[in-house]
Amino acid sequence: MNRFSGSSDDSDINLTPMLDVVFIMLIFFIVTATFIKQAGIDVLRPDALTDAAKPLVSVLVAIGPNGDIWIDKNKVDPETVRAHIERLHAENPKGG
Fold this sequence. Notes:
It is found in: Cell membrane. With about 100 residues, the chain is α+β, with helices and mostly antiparallel strands. It has two helices and three strands; from the N terminus they run H-E-E-E-H.
């Protein structure tokens, strides 16, 4: 009795090359999809006629060797430093 018959079972399809191609295509589509920009609508915004652009202002705070506090070259009491800084911030919230 012959254990192995004359016909071998070599009719299997090798899926490895097909899977390689599918994964390469998947990576290609994912990468190209992130670079595609969606077309948007250009909106014409009106310009403000009443508001002039304010220049950005920096606040200079200095503490002298003897403990004096100076804000923008003006001597300030230590108790009123917070009020001066809050006032300057309210006048120019974006700072400089």
